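Predicting holo structure, flavin mononucleotide bound.
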Amino acid sequence: MSNSTVDDVIQARMSARAFTSEAPSRELIQHILQVASRAPSGTNTQPWKVYVLEGNILAELCDKVCDAYEAISNNPELADQYKEAYSYYPEKWFSPYIDRRRENGWSLYGLLGIEKGEKEKMFLQHQRNFRFFDAPVGLFFTIHRDLGTGSILDYGMFLQNIMVSAQSHGLASCPQAAWNKFSKIILPAIGATSEEMLVCGMALGYADQADKVNTFQTPRAKVDEFTSWLK
Ligand SMILES: Cc1cc2nc3c(=O)[nH]c(=O)nc-3n(C[C@H](O)[C@H](O)[C@H](O)COP(=O)(O)O)c2cc1C
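Done. Tokens:
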């Protein structure tokens, strides 16, 4: 099988969960977004809208969401105040997806030395989402609420393009649905209108190669497990 550059970059991409403080330039971020916008979309609707956060705005929003997350952890009844605008995950999990989800979670925690029942450590690790894992750039993605489900499909292609282009420029990323619950805090803070819905967040920056969390490698099912060949 030939070794194309695109294949290599796609295979090298992984979700980074620790970043250095080195900030990518605005020109580079702009370039990546422009390239990513070559993603196809039904009738070329281009449903994406991007917010790039850095510096104080980023830090202040992270503080707010970290506080909200901590408040929920201290008083679970507060969780009802925060709702995702769309269901990213199923309400009721089932095999094989639940098994993969569990394997993913426990492998990551295992790597970090977090054992079952260590709730405080799990809380702190999950809370790192709300600091964009210390990435210098945090991205939020919104979509017009009234667009169809298909536009979310288009959005996924745009997001993957961002991550692949970023990878090709030596940057790392982590797509994050963890933020979605807190759209009530995020949308007004970034200046989004009431017509917009939060799709997800994404951490962007240079991976901290010294942090073991970035050695986490996720498995994939073999082609024959998800493909039927018909002739
Ligand atoms: C839309 C989307 C949302 C995700 N949300 C989170 C998140 O909130 N926090 C996190 O640590 N990882 C998140 N991930 C990363 C997945 O856990 C990761 O993609 C998966 O385990 C495969 O690993 P890899 O990206 O390193 O290949 C998300 C991935 C996607 C595509």
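Strands lie at 49-53, 137-144, 172-176, 196-205.
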